[in-house]
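Lab notebook, bench 4. Continuing the backlog of folding jobs that were queued last week. Each job is logged with the same field layout so the records can be merged later without manual cleanup. Today's entry covers Mobile element protein, a 130-residue chain. Filled in by technician R.K.

JOB TYPE: sequence-to-structure
TARGET: Mobile element protein
LENGTH: 130
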Amino acid sequence: MKLRSFSHGYGQITYHIVLAPKYRFKIFYNKRAKKDCESIFKNICTEKGYSIHAMEVVDDHVHLFLEFHPRTSLSKVIQHLKGGSSYRLFKLHPELREKYWGGSLWSSGKFYRSIGNVTADTIRHYINES
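JOB STATUS: finished
OUTPUT FIELD FOLLOWS
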């Protein structure tokens, strides 16, 4: 991954994000739902200008390795992913409403970690030697 130039900066914002359906139901065991989820996340990321470096949809959660503009907050990215995919998945798979009668597909929690090409020790050394 390369650093990118922006209007007032130079850098990179990449995150490993994990999203899980409410109650950790294994809704992506269904191959059609899994493919639809992958396609929906790709479409949302394209629409919003996020880059997907890797994605894996497993039975009960989704891993995403994303890069996005520094002007965009992580919480906004997660909101777009969860909200947009919920709406589209419910539309394509109305049977999901039986499990998620409250209207929320995704759990309120999430996992995220920023990812970079250097280790914490490298940064610490750079700062201490400056």
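OBSERVATION: Helices lie at 31-48, 74-92, 96-99, 120-129.
SIGNED: R.K.
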